[in-house]
Write a structure and sequence with these properties.
The protein is of the alpha+beta class and about 130 residues long. About 45% of the residues lie in helices and about 25% in strands. The strands form 2 sheets. A 4-stranded antiparallel sheet has the order 5-4-3-6, with no helix packed on it. A two-stranded antiparallel ribbon has the order 1-2. Strand 3 and strand 4 form a beta hairpin. The termini are far apart. About 5% of the residues are buried.
């Protein structure tokens, strides 16, 4: 208090002038700011939860991608068995004779050009599944 004036924040005002209204306005503003703060905190918590979910999902997808790449490498690995194509059974299967004399009912990979598969042509067979 300076003489008849009261110091509020950084302004001087005469006594009794709009003091109650100033408090009402400030308390209303404080309530609005508090509600805004609470809302922003909720949004931030939700964003944090989303971020954790996305990080976990990315980790899982990376693991799945690595497994898929390993599977592709395994399938594309150098075949160990050479055989002779005998005949097509259907669009995805055929009969192949191995150099050891055995006949196999085999799967024909979808990436293979079926027009190139003619009887008695040499084919490479996958070492485990014997797929052409």
């Amino acid at each position: 208090t300076l003489g008849n004036y009261h110091l509020t924040h950084s302004t001087l005002r005469p006594p009794g002038r709009q003091q109650a209204m100033v408090h009402t306005d400030l308390s209303g503003t404080k309530d609005d700011l508090y509600m805004r703060l609470k809302d922003l905190k909720r949004q931030m918590e939700f964003s944090d939860i989303q971020e954790e979910y996305i990080k976990d999902e990315m980790k899982n997808l990376k693991r799945e991608m690595i497994r898929a790449q390993e599977e592709i490498k395994r399938v594309q690995s150098v075949p160990l068995v050479i055989g002779q194509f005998s005949e097509m059974i259907d669009q995805n299967h055929g009969i192949v004779s191995s150099t050891a004399g055995s006949n196999y009912f085999v799967r024909i990979l979808s990436t293979l050009n079926r027009e190139l598969l003619k009887p008695n042509c040499s084919v490479a067979l996958h070492r485990h599944s014997h797929a052409v």
